[in-house]
Amino acid sequence: MEYLKLNNGITMPALGLGTFMLAGEICEEAVAAAIQVGYRMIDTAEAYGNEAAVGNGIAKSGIDRKELFLVTKVNYKSYENVRETVEQSLKNLQTDYIDLLLLHWPFANYYNAWRELEKLHEEGKIRAIGVSNFEPAQLVELIAYNKVVPAVDQIETNLYCQRSAQRTWLDKNKVAHMAYAPLGQGNRNEMFTEPEVIALAEKYHKKPSQILLRFLTQKGIIVIPRSIKAEHIRENFDIFDFSLTDDEIKKLTELDQKTAMIGNPNNPDLAEMSLTW
Questions:
Q1: What CA–CA distance (Å, rounded) separates 170 from 165?
Q2: Which domain holds residue 13?
């Protein structure tokens, strides 16, 4: 495992398990399996409706809570009731603190929500606070008018949506770049058959998915691939025993299509789904 140090000094794994659209026993088993493989970060959210299942999966794993890095998010519909929402998340996850808590979307009264997160952070119930789906202008404005700089911005990022422009602003403000949908979504799976990706998979004796994840982590991006299959969970974790060359990273960078799929108004099939990512 590789780690990144956040702007408040906390260390965060570079790879974790995403749990979007996982529920019930399937979610529990995926979480437990991932932890047993070696994952130490689990990402969930109030809007996913699976925090309790994630908590049960952690309990099933038998791993000490202190070894884990838990990430969850407050849904924009709860921005007027952040404290109550966080207290419920703590109960669902069967823990007395959360490692990283994000505001899920820049909607509604997110200034009120952020200031409540700042208080919870000061109280020690949250080790780091951040945002998700915030664009640079929203992020910079939030930083300018509040005390705590977000530790993380979790945004859709993958081979076809690399967020280079946003990354410039994230780095400038010392906000870590965290990727959801690092392996794409829906028809974006065509990235698995890109000739350059296939060639690198053959060279390093890896799966295309492993090349795609390693590409992101080598660029300093935190990834949370999702899977329920034990084989894929293991494969997604097994990416730190090789490194792409600078030239290989450059070639993959050139495949950026600079288009987000999640929440893209030109993609109505994903428009509703986007609000829970």
A1: 9
A2: 3-276
